[in-house]
Specification:
about 30% strand; Aminopeptidase; about 170 residues; alpha+beta; eight-stranded mixed beta sheet
């Protein structure tokens, strides 16, 4: 899916969603550090590996050239999510779902529906790629956000690397 531009809410600024590049890692790490406690921070190498394995499903969202958030996704198989902070060796040969690994919006970008725009962009991509379901692990109480977007909790427990309150979630596409 090509770069998408959206009018920013309540202003004349343009919101840009684009694929990540290797040059974006410092901006991604900066957003991540603003959004997560130390126990949920992933290394540059771990994030870059996800970007390498699925470059078509790694996006940034910008306002006026300023990175405000990112989204890492990739094809996956089964209800057991990949462990957090572990580099993926490969995408499974057989995949049956679109996995939303990490969506983060910097505090300066919150309240502008940026997460919703990134999510809709990704779900549209997943539908076009013929996935019938999307899966994720909600952390830090974010399951309330995901429920608003038609995700429901699974009985599957994610690895402890996601934290005690982590919830595996799924939705049909």
């Amino acid at each position: 899916m090509p770069v998408a531009q959206y009018p920013a809410l309540k202003s004349n600024m343009t919101i840009l969603i684009r694929h990540q590049t290797t040059n974006d890692i410092h901006a991604i790490l900066a957003v991540q550090s603003l959004c997560y406690p130390a126990n949920l921070i992933e290394s540059a190498a771990t994030l870059q590996r996800k970007q390498q394995l699925s470059p078509d499903t790694s996006w940034l969202i910008e306002i006026e050239g300023q990175v405000m958030g990112y989204l890492f996704c990739h094809p996956w198989h089964g209800e057991t999510p990949p462990a957090l902070k572990k580099e993926l060796e490969q995408i499974p040969a057989l995949t049956d779902r679109f996995y939303i690994h990490d969506l983060a919006i910097a505090p300066a970008g919150r309240g502008k529906k940026l997460a919703e725009q990134l999510l809709q962009h990704a779900l549209n991509w997943a539908r076009q790629a013929h996935f019938s379901q999307a899966m994720l692990v909600a952390v830090l109480g974010a399951d309330a956000f995901w429920k608003k977007h038609q995700f429901t909790a699974l009985t599957t427990s994610p690895s402890s690397s996601y934290g005690e309150d982590a919830v595996c979630m799924l939705r049909a596409l």
